[in-house]
Design a protein that fits this description.
The complex is a heterodimer of chains A (311) and B (259). Chain A is α/β, with parallel strands linked by helices and 311 residues long. Helices cover 34% and strands 31% of the residues of chain A. Chain A has ten helices and 14 strands. In chain A, a hairpin with a 2-residue loop joins strand 1 and strand 2. The longest helix of chain A has 16 residues, at 170-185. Chain A is elongated and about 80 Å long. The model of chain A has no long low-confidence stretch (mean pLDDT 84). By secondary structure, chain B is mainly α. Helices cover 77% and strands 0% of the residues of chain B. Chain B is globular. The chains are: A alpha/beta (311), B mainly alpha (259). The A-B interface holds A 48, 52, 55-59, 75-79, 81, 83, 85-91, 93-94, 102-103, 105-108, 147, 150, 160, 162 and B 1, 4-5, 8, 11-12, 14-15, 83-85, 87-95, 253-256, 258-259.
Chain lengths: 311, 259
Amino acid sequence: MTVAIRFDNVRKTYRERGNRKEALKGLSFEVPSGEIVGFLGPNGAGKTTAMHILLDFIQANEGRAEILGIDSRDPRSREQVGFLPEIFNFDGFLKGEEFLRLFARLGGAKQSQVTGRIAELLEILDMPTAGGIKIRNYSKGMTQKIGLAQALIADPQVLILDEPTSGMDPIAKARIKQLLQKLRSQGKTVFLSTHILSDIEDIADRVAIINNGELLAVEKLGVLLNSEQSSYRIAFQPHGAEVIALLQARLSVSIEGDIATVTSQNRADKDFALETILRHGGDIIGVKQTGASLLNKFLKLVEHEELSDDK
Amino acid sequence: MINELALHRLSKLRSSKIIWVFIGACVFLALPTILPIIFVDQMAPGSVGAESAAAPFFMLVNFMGHIAALILGITTWRIDYRDGTLLTFAARPIARIELLVGKIIGSLYGLLIYLFIAVALYAVIHLVFFRFAIPGVAPLYLLQLLTAWLSTFGLGLLFSNFGNPLLATFLAALYWFLSIMGNIFQQLPFQTLQVIGDVLKFLSIDNNRTYSLDAILKSDISSVSPILSGIGYYFAWSVLLLSLSILLFNKREFINKRS
């Protein structure tokens, strides 16, 4: 496994009004090449600080970060990097094409390939005519897309994206997710920070969760979700007391008005409950699986379990 | 890569509102200084020399040049920092020094364009209305102007590290205040106060090796030596201020101000 991004015991302390705030407390983890890695954490957890250290916008107090084996303080570490900041903003007086041309040149792209590359990216991002429009006339979603095009213009090996789908409509979001998956299939690495957990669930191979500057988990998405206990809740309208008694003998049942809810902690118990209800009289209103979601795992890890959907 | 950054800075200047306000102010203020040059022959014969008639124009060019240099210095990277656009540049494989030097060069292109327009305008008026040769020391005078502006530019660039553009402008204005105070102290009768005046003048990046404008326009060769001294003085200040600015920029933390 080759490593695209490495954080090695990175510490960062800010001073705010005379107080010291430890933004990163010895962050260490690796992002393997060719994977999409979701970087999750509540606001103020240290995600943006970590990304900014990786791009040498700010300096760590201790430890080091690397991109493709090169220390992040060396500008060469950014030769194979495309970056989209959380709120992308660029000079509105430039037309989309002029902007992309500028960044292609700054990224060292060959002039002969630039025109074709710009057209290709604008086409992929579903804005083929936007190259001739000034950025100041773009919508929020278009601005974000041109920012993504800028990150991709030099065909980098590593993409660092901070909230890439912010401000985009559902179709554009789906298109971006498809694009990121395609990039992964080409062997590119995507390091993605977002608050939209469903995006991570849809496309990420691995998830790193951070809170209060500390890494709480870094794991393959499947492994992370399997470690989460699932439970099932079955709501039904019982036809008599017998079915309730049979279920209560094995499971937890709560009754509100004429609706009963039975909770099972595993698939076998769920099957037992469904069979009992159907056999002994009851109209099933709904079955809900809770627990095995990234949201619940995330909430548990960041100690906000009370907000999970099984509570 | 530096040239790409410089050209981008220049095109950003072209689209900047403050630059158009500046150009408007220059045109508005230049008219009353050009008219005496044009109509000097119609004035009472001998009352005003052709050279003296040109002095207000050059004083305006000089003063507005300092204003331009200050604006350019303060905004060289600060606007990009405020907008968050600096991050997009900094994420490219560019060393910070390259990033800043590119932007400095772009700003200096702007200053050179200003000087070129002012000189071209004067040359046209001079040749059309005076029909005598431009003095040979004029290029030296222009070089002194440029180095003086460069030191003001360096001041703006340095102060832009310490806060928002308004604060930077205030700090620069404080330097001009120091210069005025220096002048006052130097003229006081007590030697100690005169020394304080000298120190204030030194700190204000102003000096007493002034431009000798009349001498230059009259082709007085004896004025060349103080000009060379002035060029050296302002150049030394410029190098110091620009070096300090680069050093601070290199240590600066880039944080997305809009996130």
